[in-house]
Each structure stands twice: as structure tokens, then as C-alpha cells.
Amino acid sequence: MKIIEFCDTTLRDGEQAPGNTMKPKDKLLIAKKLENIGVNVIEAGFPASSKEDFEAIKLISSHLKKATVCSFARCVEKDIDIANESTKGAKNRMLMIFYAISDIHLKNKYNTNRKDAMEKIKNSIRYSKQYFKRIKFGLEDATRADPKYLHQVINLLLNEGVDTIALGDTTGWITPLETFKLVKNVVYQVNGKVKISIHCHNDLGMATANTLSAIMAGVDEVDTTVNGIGERAGNTPFEEIVVSLVVRKDIFKRKINIKLNALMPLSELVYKIINRTPSHEKPIVGVNAFRHESGVHIDGIKKDPSTYEIFNPKKNWTQARIFIWKTFKQEMTC
User: Fold this and answer.
1) How many structural domains comprise the chain?
2) If I label 313, which of 87, 105, 182, 223 is the partner at 20 to 30 A Cα–Cα?
3) Same domain, 249 and 294
4) 70 lies in the same domain as 109
5) Which of 203, 293, 177, 285 minimizes the C-alpha distance to 238?
6) Neighbour count for residue 55 (Cβ, 10 Å)
7) Are 156 and 122 a contacting pair, CB within 8 Å?
8) What CATH number should be reported for the domain holding residue 57?
9) Residue 326 sits in which domain range?
10) What is the pLDDT of residues 250-294, one digit of tens each?
11) 237 in Cβ contact with 209 (< 8 Å)
């Protein structure tokens, strides 16, 4: 049975939202929790964006022992240089470079054309190889790119020897059926030569569904954030993918190496650091996720919890959920 790997981008994409700012010491706490819970790759930040991000990645690099520290960069030599400096102390490290490939971005953001974009991508990968043995290339807005051009860019990435190709649904635009078809075609094209990753946003509320569709279509890795935090409507929630793969293993038939009993403490830590609480109805970690009011439901739960609870919440999940609920009530009365 195939193992699904997790690349957590809570510390990079998750922070890129109003109010989600994290200090370097906070990022280290989260990174340690992520490593302990079994996350394979931790995208620690965008070091060229700020001095604090650089220091956070440097700090994380010096502490992690198992997980791969991934530093983020544009297709800009200075970005790549800074990413190298920020991760020099890491036991395991990787570079994540990205470039948008949809015509919307090429024309309106970069003011460039497809041919020149491919040249820039190629040169950036080659420049990166002087520093990094492992390179993940993120295709921003891949889901809105011309399929023929996407095919050409992937061939370029294969020829340049990247380790992982990340397909970005940057605007949360694609649907689950379209995701399955797109990923299936890409998986067929690469034929096991590189890992394929999926990076979804939640603008239309389909990030979890799209990520699960990508898993069914054969991706090797999924990009997620704790509690689904991130730009605009957020990213694919880590806890939702983990629990979905466990509860519906009959459908997905994938293994994961994630410690389930550490999910809720991790969720609590992230919410506490960014000074937020989950919505009551938030799947897995919301305060109402395992609370019932309807008499019919309560009667069923008393007789057999599986009538209305499709998985059994661990004891420490419940304790952490009660903590969040009490904190929320205290804030409301202040």
C-alpha cells in the first residue's frame, strides 16, 4: 500500500494571511510538533521576504533531526542564495522554487511569454543545483494553465532533474473531478521519475476534496496547513486529510505515518500562537465536532456512538477541544 507523504506549509503559506504572523520561536515550536507527529517535509518560510523569516528558517534548520526543512524561493538568484544561507545548518534540506505557468499570470503578472518563462525556469533550476541536492518545483496556478503548456513545462522539469513537481491550485478554482483527471495525466506523464505533489487553496471550499481526489489519482505528497490556515480562504487542512485517509482507508487505500493522538494538541498550539479559535463547525477540531443536541442523535449516541460519530475522538483530543471552548467563552465575556 502506497504511503502518502505530507509537506506542511503552515509556517510559510499559512502565515501569509492577515493576523497569522508568527515569531521565529513560535515557528520553531510548531516545527518541532510537526516533526514529532510524522510530517515528512516542513516548508519553513520564505527567507527573502523578511529578516524574521530568514532567522526562523535558520533556527528551525539547527533543531530538526528527521524532517526535511524546505526553504521557499522565486526564480531569482538572490532568493536562491538566501534560501541556501537560511538552511545551511539543516540535517535534511530542500529548495522549493516556484513560477506561475497560467497565461493569466504570465501576461498580467510577469509580462512575459511561455518561451521566456521556460528559459527562466530552466536557468533557476540549474543555478539552484550548486547548493541543493533536492529541488521541489512549484507550478503556481497550474490548474488554470493550458494543458499542452503544462505538459511542456513538466517535460522541462523532468529533463532538469527536479525531485518533486508541485501542482498548484493557487486560486482554489478546480473541481474534484477535474483534479483527478489532471493529476492522472501528470502521473502518467512522469511515470515514476519524480514525485508529484498537490497544493490546493480553499476559495470555493473544495481544498480537502481536491486533495483527496489527487491522492486517488496517484500523487505522492500533499501540501497542507494545520487548521487549514492560509491566504484568503486558506489551504488544505492537515487534520482533515489525515483523518479522512484513516476513516476511509477502504476507499483511498493509502498509508500514513502520522500520530493521530497528536493532532489536537498541534491544532491548539497553532490557534494559540495566531490568537484565534476554530469555528464551532470546523471538522475534526471544532468545538461542536463531537457535541450533540438533537434528542434523536443523543439517543443514538447512548446506544452506539458509531450511529452519529464516524470515528472515535481520542481522549486528549477532547481535552484540548474543551480548552479551546473555554478560551473562546472567556474572550467573548471580556
Assistant:
1) 2
2) 223
3) no
4) yes
5) 285
6) 17
7) yes
8) 3.20.20.70
9) 268-333
10) 999 999 999 998 999 999 999 999 999 998 889 988 887 777 677
11) no
